[in-house]
Automatic annotation (TrEMBL):
It holds the Pfam family OST-HTH. The keyword Hydrolase does not apply. This is Tudor domain-containing protein 5. Its main location: cytoplasm. Belongs to the TDRD5 family. It comes from Vidua chalybeata (Village indigobird).
């Protein structure tokens, strides 16, 4: 999340500079071309969770002003800040005559569309016309569609058709795009950006829906009351036995408890551990991939070419992880629910599966080591990295969030070994650069001691780039024709320590990778990947 924020801030500066230099503004297509020409890479839409350039710039109201021409074309113009006002004035003065000639047109446009002097640029009218409004019935249908759960923008049309038996044709109401529709309903619908795309969330869902659900869970005796009666105790014990999850109760001294949470307002009103809190269970891993299988991957965490973690580019897996993180964010960000799952000191121990909040998002983690009274180091099972966090950020993981397998797969680059015995910093830096923000093709070779050895290939360029060949050609690696066990993973492999192999966790749901292709299909499309690996490349 922090990387996305930093990337967005850099992108805002670049976009503002390009638009200020364009006297008449740029269309979204021209902005894409200009960015490619200047930065030598496309706009990072996917990295920031956007589907289009127009969607991106609508999230930069302090940077970009969106205007419409008579023919319906959209023009993007810069909104200068304090550091760029001088440059903007110079550019504006170069078009004094043109601006005078088009004063009437500009005045007419400003009557409908926002200007850079707008106090609240996010609340401007729809671009097609100042009077475009959705009928009340259609608004009610959209709100009803989102009342049960958030929905990805890409899935809106299908969901609307399935729910109401007709397509959502916003153009007949005077709108040019779906983004204009969402802006007109900004008082009731929030658009949140995710890796899977734009997520539509009903504002009421963020507050009242969560509160109602938590209240319902409490009333359904999911958690015991503070002062249970004898009958309630018997029902509670029976429910615990049915779940086969023993409840551990502890008598905690109130004074010690207050010392542990000094300066942290959220602490539980009862020392009882909720019955649905995970205490002695582990996450399971994804099912193993077949040998010679081709699969789309994204490299999430890199320590070296012999130690890194990947995500499988599967729509199913991506959606399930995204849904899980959104649900955890909604539940644990609610104070009542968060208080119930605070972990006592006795539960903060190595190997404990729990969750932690980092930058307002909640992640499934395993405690790797306790550093001191305030900090612990945790392993993020879905992304593969180790991180030091505050103990006060930890919460018990709800039983429901145990089902999805750990999404990070430990990997090592196949058939290579470092020239110097250990990977140099230059080799690691090069490998990180090759992997950065790209969807790659992984060619599965084999598993060695639970670590997936695979070849990585970048197919986004004119010619396929095989990473083991780049490292060899740069003098950083030798091709050895076999897989040598990773020294780094032998020293520390958190996945092997804390994640159960697939099939050993009884309550875990199996998620088969859906992008694994047959080798013959790949050979037909790109001219035999096998020859490239076994022939001249090796």
């Amino acid at each position: 999340a922090s990387k996305q924020v930093q990337l967005m801030e850099v992108l805002k500066k670049e976009v503002r500079a390009m638009l200020i230099a364009a006297k008449a503004g740029l269309t979204p297509e021209q902005l894409e071309e200009q960015y490619m020409a200047v930065v030598c890479k496309p706009l990072p839409l996917r990295d920031l969770g956007f589907q289009s350039t127009l969607e991106l710039v609508t999230q930069m109201p302090e940077v970009v002003q969106i205007c419409s021409l008579k023919d319906g074309a959209l023009i993007l113009k810069a909104i200068a800040d304090d550091s760029t006002k001088g440059i903007a004035k110079l550019v504006a003065n170069q078009k004094v005559k043109t601006r005078k000639a088009s004063k009437k047109t500009a005045t007419k446009a400003n009557a409908t569309f926002p200007t850079k002097n707008s106090k609240n640029p996010q609340n401007f009218q729809t671009l097609s016309a100042g009077t475009s409004v959705l009928p009340a019935m259609v608004k009610a249908e959209l709100q009803d569609l989102l009342s049960s759960s958030p929905l990805l923008l890409a899935d809106l049309d299908k969901a609307f058709l399935r729910r109401f038996g007709r397509a959502f044709q916003y153009r007949q109401y005077g709108f040019l795009s779906m983004f204009e529709v969402l802006r007109s309903m900004s008082d009731s619908i929030v658009v949140e950006q995710t890796k899977a795309g734009s997520l539509l969330v009903l504002r009421k869902y963020l507050a009242s829906k969560i509160e109602q659900r938590e209240a319902f869970q409490a009333s359904a005796a999911e958690m015991p009351p503070l002062e249970p009666t004898c009958e309630t105790k018997r029902c509670y014990q029976a429910a615990v036995l049915m779940d086969s999850e023993p409840v551990q109760t502890q008598a905690v001294d109130l004074g010690d408890h207050l010392k542990q949470h000094q300066g942290f307002e959220q602490f539980p009103a009862t020392p009882e551990i909720p019955p649905d809190a995970v205490q002695d269970r582990s996450l399971c891993s994804l099912p193993p991939l077949k040998r010679r299988c081709l699969v789309g991957v994204i490299v999430e965490c890199v320590i070296s070419p012999s130690q890194f973690y990947i995500h499988i580019c599967s729509t199913e897996a991506s959606y399930k992880l995204q849904d899980l993180m959104f649900e955890m964010r909604h539940v644990y960000s609610h104070k009542v629910a968060s208080d119930k799952y605070i972990m006592p000191e006795s539960a903060v121990r190595p190997g404990q599966l729990c969750c932690v909040m980092v930058s307002k998002w909640w992640y499934r983690v395993i405690i790797h080591r306790v550093i001191n009274d305030q900090e612990v180091e945790v392993f993020c099972a879905d992304y593969g990295h180790l991180q030091i966090v505050q103990k006060s950020w930890l919460r018990f993981l709800k039983w429901h969030y145990l089902k999805l397998p750990a999404q990070a797969i430990p990997c090592s680059l196949a058939w290579v070994k470092p020239v110097e015995g250990t990977w140099s910093s230059a080799a690691i830096l090069l490998f990180k650069h090759l992997c950065r923000f790209k969807e790659l093709v992984g060619i599965v070779d084999e598993y060695v001691d639970g670590v997936l050895n695979l070849f990585l290939c970048d197919t986004s360029t004119k010619e396929d780039v095989y990473f083991h060949s780049v490292l060899r050609d740069m003098g950083y690696a030798d091709i050895c024709g076999e897989n040598i066990p990773s020294q780094e993973f032998e020293e520390l492999n958190p996945s092997a320590l804390y994640v159960q192999p697939s099939g050993k966790q009884g309550n875990a749901e199996v998620v088969e990778p859906d992008l694994c292709l047959q080798q013959e299909s790949r050979d037909a499309d790109s001219g035999t990947a096998t020859l490239k690996l076994n022939g001249a490349e090796v």
